[in-house]
Amino acid sequence: NAGVTQTPKFQVLKTGQSMTLQCAQDMNHEYMSWYRQDPGMGLRLIHYSVGAGITDQGEVPNGYNVSRSTTEDFPLRLLSAAPSQTSVYFCASSSLAGGASEQFFGPGTRLTVL
Amino acid sequence: QQQVKQSPQSLIVQKGGISIINCAYENTAFDYFPWYQQFPGKGPALLIAIRPDVSEKKEGRFTISFNKSAKQFSLHIMDSQPGDSATYFCAASSPDRGSTLGRLYFGRGTQLTVWP
């Protein structure tokens, strides 16, 4: 199993550009989520999904969109990139059995917005 | 509002010493307390976790101590090694199957450096 995969690993954008961060998992997990990690701020939840067709906002959703058309994929879209979105983005997945407690993280995407 | 407060922000320990990282929470509905370990350039990985029905859980050199009445839990790394140098995050979640299902509330992290 590949676990949770993320692409790209690195990305540089100009202010105002849009892009999609890809996330896929092969563990048949119902729950998937996106976090951003900033120095001294820990991991902050952006959006999450408890299954295909179901998404909800986390702690810092502004400027991001998500959709979940399949169990495996959970892309994160930046609509109009801003320098404040410079961060490292992690996707995670877990099984809802047991309350989605143990989350498996991908390797991250480092995004710089100029 | 920070649901889980973690300290210290950074920690330097000599090889062979004991590393201790502390976390505190307010929400008494939390019933799962994991610790994640993150190496530079990698995603966090689950290290050890505890539920409030026990006061301590040990896995190798890593131990979680849990104090339900004080709403605190801590990670102890015995015989710390240079390979333990990483960022450690505590977290908490509740069994609520409503809007908070699956949501992990993370502390801000502790950067541990173990000197050889």
Characterization of this structure:
The complex is a heterodimer of chains A (114) and B (116). Chain A has 114 residues and is an all-beta fold. Helices cover 0% and strands 51% of the residues of chain A. Chain A has no helices and 11 strands. Chain A has strands spanning 4-7, 10-13, 19-25, 31-38, 42-51, 54-57, 64-66, 76-78, 87-94, 104-105, 109-113. In chain A, the strands form 2 sheets. In chain A, strands 2, 4, 5, 6, 9, 10 and 11 form a 7-stranded mixed sheet that branches. Chain A has a 4-stranded antiparallel sheet with strand order 1-3-8-7, with no helix packed on it. Chain A is globular, with a radius of gyration of 13 Å. Chain A starts with a strand and ends with a strand. Chain B has strands at residues 4-7, 10-14, 19-25, 33-38, 45-50, 56-59, 62-67, 72-77, 86-92, 105-106, 110-115. Chain B is 0% helix and 51% strand. In chain B, a hairpin with a 6-residue loop joins strand 4 (33-38) and strand 5 (45-50). The termini of chain B are far apart. Chain B is mainly beta and 116 residues long. In chain B, the strands form 2 sheets. In chain B, strands 2, 4, 5, 9, 10 and 11 form a 6-stranded mixed sheet that branches. Chain B is globular, with a radius of gyration of 14 Å.
